[in-house]
Amino acid sequence: MILIAGIPDESPVALAIEAAEVAGIAHVVLDQRDHLAIDLRLTLDPVGGWRGYLDAPAGRTDLADIRGVYVRLMDERFLPDVVDLPADAPARLRSGRLHQLLHDWLNVAPIRVASRPRAMLSNMSKTYQAGIIRRCGFAIPDTIVTNDPAAARAFVEECAADGDEVIYKSVSGTRSIVQTFAPGDHDRLGHICWCPTQFQRRVRGPDMRVHVVGTRTFATAIASEATDYRYAQRQSGADADLTAATLDPALHRACVALSAELDLPFTGIDLRHAPSGETICFEANPCPAYSYYQSRTGAPIADALVRWLAGID
Hints:
Helix content is 30%, strand content 28%. With 313 residues, the chain is α+β, with helices and mostly antiparallel strands. The two termini are 14 Å apart.
């Protein structure tokens, strides 16, 4: 049996539930919206290890029956029924303790988890993750992370002297829209004094997203004129074109190795094929919104995910 935890109406979660149903894989859905009605009990048996159960409106689940968990939870602080409550409100405190206990179990449970909360933290610092990416054999863009306007300006001028543009984005795991540095941005550089920002030399070439599930990979080639193809319509006036692609064996192995190094058995790796022939890696997403890619290419990512969680990959 597998556990699927999240908001069932959200596309990645809904696709995982559907895939489990189609494959005939026994599963339990933990609807995060029921958080105030969920009871999680854990005990540590010196002989048998972790034991416990999960009580939810749908019934009780013995954690010993769970072989794998797909976890895609939103930040519990922003759940609708607690977001406006004071920090010391009983409902908010109870919800926080429930989620902390759930994360603790997911971090240590001897089962397959996509992905463990502690492993997802690597994406909270793009610079930290970039070091791991480079150790796994990928090239990374020339990058500066700074809150010094003079340093950022010097980097932009250096790239411009080489005929290259610069892009900028968040340095944390918070999703941001990648933007091309424009002449008018010079006047706004003072704002980074309060918010360290990542600037990168723009790499030309086609994008590719690779989803790793265990040791399987699903590649999507992306054609777009936008700086950030996820917002192609807004930035270029035309949707990005996504097609299924096949990885060469070396790139497949490198993606699987990076996923393993990050302890992220399910991850979305963002690549770009540079004119030099190098494959540049920008980041590895620890909880990818894979439904965007599956819906456009037909890649069976959700099926691979639930089969991996059930141990039948």
